[in-house]
User: Fold these one by one.
Assistant:
Number 1:
Amino acid sequence: AQSVAQPEDQVNVAEGNPLTVKCTYSVSGNPYLFWYVQYPNRGLQFLLKYITGDNLVKGSYGFEAEFNKSQTSFHLKKPSALVSDSALYFCAVRDPTTGGFKTIFGAGTRLFVKA
Amino acid sequence: EPEVTQTPSHQVTQMGQEVILRCVPISNHLYFYWYRQILGQKVEFLVSFYNNEISEKSEIFDDQFSVERPDGSNFTLKIRSTKLEDSAMYFCASSGTGVGEQFFGPGTRLTVL
């Protein structure tokens, strides 16, 4: 069965510093991986995805993520954090071999960026 | 920019009542989804819908739940007899392809008393 783990409930970083939000996954086949962000009282917004190809994917708002198959990880990164990046971040995985479209979300990591 | 819309934004109902949550997906999308998020907890997959039928559903999506695309634009989630534990934020999403990112609506907060 597919699963996603976000080991950190919360990440604190100072504005201007690099940030990393961790994600590991478990699927039987090659995964489709996604990052979404949720601001208070809003729906989820897509940041980036990995389907195939280059392991480093770039997304919205300067975020990027690196797919690491051997470590089954897909960590979200940004070189220089902004206060406005403070939000709840969700990693998500889909196993294309199941034939359906079920997407499993991690528990979320709350990012606090301090000025 | 096209967006997914949901109505109502907040629904309060009595336990045992039926509720219908409504969604208008992005117009050229073909894949539709419902998720729920209990306050402070993870986003949980409920069901995916493609080609006018359910393509996959979770164990949460029992006989009390049903989905429908009644008129080619709306996508609805019906809960036949609500329970207290159905209180959550319900998100609708749509995608243009089966592998693409999903676009989420703002959610409907369901409160069951």
Number 2:
Amino acid sequence: NAGVTQTPKFRVLKTGQSMTLLCAQDMNHEYMYWYRQDPGMGLRLIHYSVGEGTTAKGEVPDGYNVSRLKKQNFLLGLESAAPSQTSVYFCASSTPTSGGYNEQFFGPGTRLTVL
Amino acid sequence: AQSVTQLDSQVPVFEEAPVELRCNYSSSVSVYLFWYVQYPNQGLQLLLKYLSGSTLVESINGFEAEFNKSQTSFHLRKPSVHISDTAEYFCAVSERGVGGSYIPTFGRGTSLIVHP
């Protein structure tokens, strides 16, 4: 199993450009998440999905859109990139258990710089 | 609403010394608690978790954490650290949310720096 993979690993954008980050998981997990990690801020949830075709906003959704057309993929889009979106982006997946808890499995991250 | 506070942003320690990384949470309902570790230039990976039962949980590499409901804490400890323990450590809490989903909230992280 590859687990959770993210594409690309690095990207440099100019202000106003758009791009899509791809997250894929091969564990048949129901839930998928996008986080951003900034120094001193920890992990902040951008958007998440509890199943194919459903998405929900997290703590910092502005400037981002997501889609979950297939269970194994979760896409994060930046329509018009801004320097404030320079960050490391992590995707994660999990599956609910009968107990309800969510142990998350994380991808290796995408380092995005917006100039 | 759930929240997590990691009281120390950075903890420097010498090799073979004991260490404690502090985590406090707030929640109005029963929670599940986690510690994740992030090694340099990698994603997070689960270190240990508290779901129910014994309040003391252990990881395979010598870390342990104790759930204290009265103090709403879940501190991480190791009696003797190694250089290889140098990493960022994140505490997370998960409680039942809207629609029955369990979406974790993370603390800001504690950077453990082990000196030789």
